[in-house]
Amino acid sequence: MNELENEEAVFEIGVVIPRKIIQEKDESSDCACVLVEEFKKVGFVVERVVGIADEFIKLAAPLETLGRTAAELQIKKRTHIGMDLQFEVEEVEAFVKQPDGSVFSWCERFHCYCHLIYGIVNNGNSAIKLKFDGKEIDWETGENLIQKLESENIVKQVFPLHDEKTRKKLLRTWALHWWGLTSQPIDEIYSYYGAKIAIYFAFLGMYTRWLFFLAVFGLTLQLIDLRSTKLVVLPVFFVVVILWAVMFCQFWKRKNSALLARWPLSSAVAADPGYKIPGRRDSSLQPPMDLLKIFETDRAKGKQVFQRHEWLGRFMRFRNDAFIIFSIICLQLPFELAYAHLYEVIGSDAMKFGLTAVYLFAIQYITKIGGRVSVRLIKNENNENTEKRADSLVYKVFGLYFMQTYIGIFYHALLHRNFATLRKVLIQRLLLSEVLENLVENSLPYLKYSYKKYSVRHKKKREKGESADRIQFSSRVEKEYLKPSYSASIGEELEDGLFDDFLELALQFGMILMFACAFPPAFAFATVNNIMEIRTDALKLLAILRRPVPRAAATVGAWLNIFQFLILMSICTNCALLVWLYDEEGKWKVEPGLAAILIMEHVLLLIKFGFSRLVPEEPAWVRANRAKHTTQAQDLCSKKLLRTISGGERNNGEMKVKRL
Fold this sequence. Notes:
Strands 2-3-1-8 form a 4-stranded antiparallel β-sheet, with helices on both faces. The two termini are 47 Å apart. The longest helix has 47 residues, at 299-345. It has 2 domains: 2-161, no CATH class; 178-284 and 383-614, no CATH class. It is globular. The protein contains 21 helices and 8 strands. β6 and β7 form a beta hairpin. By secondary structure, it is α+β, with helices and mostly antiparallel strands. α9 (230-262) runs antiparallel to α19. One of its GO terms (cellular component) is membrane. This is Anoctamin transmembrane domain-containing protein. Pfam families: Anoctamin (PF04547). Residues 189-629 form the Anoctamin transmembrane domain.
């Protein structure tokens, strides 16, 4: 208990309410004052900040409050013997601390904050009259206060706040640490942002480090004249690339499992990321309550109803997938082929470059529309939890982006067999697409933030008159409120900004792998881009955007399966490129060279599926640590059970003696 009292409370949540025009004389009925008092009653440390246009209530939860709430929520945390046990305030020393020394992770703290904020209800016997700017509100018995005020547009938003001390430290050691290349303080990122964002940056860092070898190899091939030996060197390079990709995916699984063993994630966190976000409807599809009631009353009938519910959900998923595939083939494919054909027939390089720029700009809106359609479609799918629904969304939207990104390149590579044009397209895509993406994803949030600040200042000046002094934003909480949130381009219902970051990596991975034989220096382009991406993404999270709502998912999810799919595609496409390099006349005779390429394809496919058997997904120390904890837990439970049995028999013996 003393350990809970020693930790310093930090303001981590902000509640936004409009700035009042009419000041209420009776503070007992003033809406803002009542809200502050209710926050204090549940254990928050509260600070009110008056901004230019709004008022902000900053909330900090002392560890004693968080511990009590965690016990109420029955949050399970990892103990020193490896078991996940329900948290108890009195036994805090039995639980493993976070890498930064705190008792609770950011995900767990956020869960507790939401429970406390959205758990304030009127427990009185009558309604309470609240006033705000001359408006009267009845807070009915049993009614949730925050939801009531949100419906009345009095509480505008509840959002996470940056911790200035930690933010500045991460800026210095992470975002502005350019000389570190791929080195990152992953444990600190996990402590501050949660597991999902930390996993993304760990993946990006490992992927970039592994790219160094292929970048050097590809540049060497580009600088050497391969006219006489290209039919020997390029197949070797292709084999090395595929082996690299297969090993990278397998060793990432080992890295991921090592991180999860190092971070004390609770079982609830690993199972479902679905801590409810304020103001957002819970989107996990659990079996409806009426089905559970039927199953309890009549098991035979309930079994049939559950089976019908299960297969209906699977059918809806199949229907949605078929609809997306049909839309891609009938709507997007003709558009992509038209662009590829125009690119082929246009003679001027400047016009080609301009056409590509216009195409990339236009296709962004088309794919965003497809993403929003996908979000609506999966609402009827019977997925297990929020993260499963997010994975379903990722698969559907990636299909749209896959067609958008690669169909034009396939057109030049497979139909026209024009390798000079193919290299130009790859250079333009790698340069223009990467530069444009980085420019948009970093400048657009800043422009939005600047426009919001200008709008607030302009509105305040009109209220005060033209002679008003220049208005400055003095409070940091107001600046954070005006910053954009870390949201996905397809909407924020199921995914946050990590969707766009992972999508960018996946499209880059596919482009450099599937056409490795056509343009080996692509790996050098990707390496330089990713080194910059690590720092710019960190700077974006720390300086340009609000602190994201934590997601507790502890893996990259569907994206790893997409990377595996792109490896399979790269085996096929590179073999096709080698065949056309070998068979320039198009005779398609089964000669030794072509036969060797065919055999090589089958061998690589065999290696792709067999390598996972050779390299285990978990390091030996992780398995040994888990076995040790399991043994300790079994021994402890056995001793406790034996003591309970012995104590029970002793008590029974004493009772018999007393009766005699």
